[in-house]
Each structure stands twice: as structure tokens, then as C-alpha cells.
Design brief:
It is built from 17 helices and two strands. It is mainly α and about 325 residues long. Among the domains are: about 5-50 and about 270-334, no CATH class; about 70-140, no CATH class. A hairpin with a 5-residue loop joins strand 1 and strand 2 (about 255-260). The longest helix is centred in the C-terminal third of the chain and has 21 residues, at about 315-334. It is elongated and about 85 Å long. The two termini are about 35 Å apart.
Amino acid sequence: CHQDVGENRPSHKDMAFDTCASSGCHNFHNNRALYTDFLVKHMDAPDLEDRPRVPAREFADVLDEILEYPRDHYPVEALGEAEMDAPADISVGDDLRRDWLETAHAAAGVNCSACHQPRDENGELSAWRDKPGTEGCNSCHGVEVERFGKGKHGMRLAAGLSPMTPAMARLPMTADSAHAELTCNSCHAGHRFDTAYAAVDACLQCHADEHTLAYEGSPHHERWLAEQGGEGGRGSGVSCATCHMPRIDYDVSDWLTRKVVDHNQSASLAPNSKMIRPACQHCHGLGFAIDALADQALIDNNFRGRPGVHVDSIDLARADQERYLRELNDASRQ
């Protein structure tokens, strides 16, 4: 199909066909970060943007526009301890009460029954579940649950199988976590639902590969600690989830697009250049990101340093753009 590519693109002349899919070049199925027009548009971007920031989550800000949100049963208003609706025969300890009262759930009117007694299609409460599954989360966070089911963490649940466990993984995992079941509560610990914990500590309790173990000594982790300690601006920290579960624009309905934390971590995993647009470019220029993701040693040490590899993609796009402009200029003179 592409035997004459050297005629149309002199920059590709004499390239071997087994290099087409090299890092930073052409990829299967998703090549959006490497389109020629996109490369040209971002070819002069600095290595680090002037104000590197991760987009803010906006679920709470758009609740009024999410028609399927169960506001009839759980109006968006702060709840106190007196409003807890757990059945009288259910023992709720002081720790659980305190954890729930400090969450965004209590602040937004999400009561005990919302998770422990998810309603059926007729709006009727189901039987109480001491340990609710994804069906409780799905009542409000349907997009996140759907995306979770498409990634490696949740794909077994989505297929009706038993939950994934770290023992099934091909990458190194911690011995203590080998038989932990991966559900929403694995990372979002019940009642607290601490998103900061889910973004880093939950990952570190299972993953033990070289890249993960190097995170706590990385510049990314330094920025994460600074933000969590109040020294960095909101969105300036870089957690595991910042890159592997990026915040993306997602069409949740025909009339609403919102920022969604993409719980399908597989979507930007391989080839890794799929991570550039949803994650890397919030902070880094395109050329720097392409080079960094092509440097396996840099990936292994969790990006402690500069890329030691250079990919020619932007150089080739620049050459094609300059050739096009010359031809256009020559044509205008005739």
C-alpha cells in the first residue's frame, strides 16, 4: 500500500518498512498524537509548559445537567449524622460515621442506602448489602464504572467473572496483595473514598515493578507531595493516576461533555504514545513527551532526568511543512 511513500514524502525515503510502528511513529488504532498536522501544531512547544496543571474534576459541578443522577432520592444537600439512613439493626461504629461525614458523599446528600441498597429499575430499595459491589457505584458513577470494566482492573467483573487479583498479573506485584480482589473499593476504601489515597497509595500497595518502585524518588512525586502539603497549586501534583488514569473530555450524553477520570487505565497503556494527548501534554511539550516515552531507561526510573532518545517524528513533520510552504510560495509566484 505504501511503496511510493518516499515519492510523496521525501523525509520517508529509504526508511525500512519494519520501522513504521517504532515509538513516536505510526501506531495501530490510535495515532492521534502523531498526526502530521498535530505534530506541526505543537512542534515548537517547550519541554515544560509555563503553568503545568492537571484539569480539575468537575462531577459535582455538573450534577444538575446529569439527568440520570438519582436526585429524587438523594437531593444534593449536605447531610449530618442525624440523617444517616442505615437500618436500625445495622451497627455503624464511630469510625464509619466519622469517615462518611468527612466525605464529599455526605456533603452532596449521598446517604448509606445509596451504596448499600441500590435501587432497582422501579426505584425500589434492594436488600441491604454489607459490602456493596459496583452496582452501588453505578447508580451515580455509571461512566466511571463502565470505563473501569473496559480496563485490566475491571474487565473480569464486566465479563461476569470473579474479580481480578494481583496474583493474575504479569508484572511484579507485592506478595501481601496477591489475593486482593480488584473492585471499586480496592482503591476507594469504603466510607472514606479518599481520592488522594486512590491516586498513589492504592497503586503502591499492589504494584512492585521497577517503574512503580522508582516513583517515590521522582520529580513527579515531589510535585505530588508539594500539592498535598499545600505548597503547590491545585492540579500541580503528578500522581500515578495523573498519567495512567488521565482526566479526559467524555461525552456522557448527547448534550453534555465533562471531565472524567478515565478508569480504563488500559486505554493509554499500549502503545504508550496514546498517553501523550490525555496526560503528558497538560505539562510537557509534544516533542519532549514523544522522546521521553521512547526511552525505556527513563520510563524504568520514572522520568528522573531528560530523554536520552530522540524520535524524528517532529523533525520529519517540520521538513514536510517547510517543503509544502516552499511549493506554495513557488506556485504563488508563477
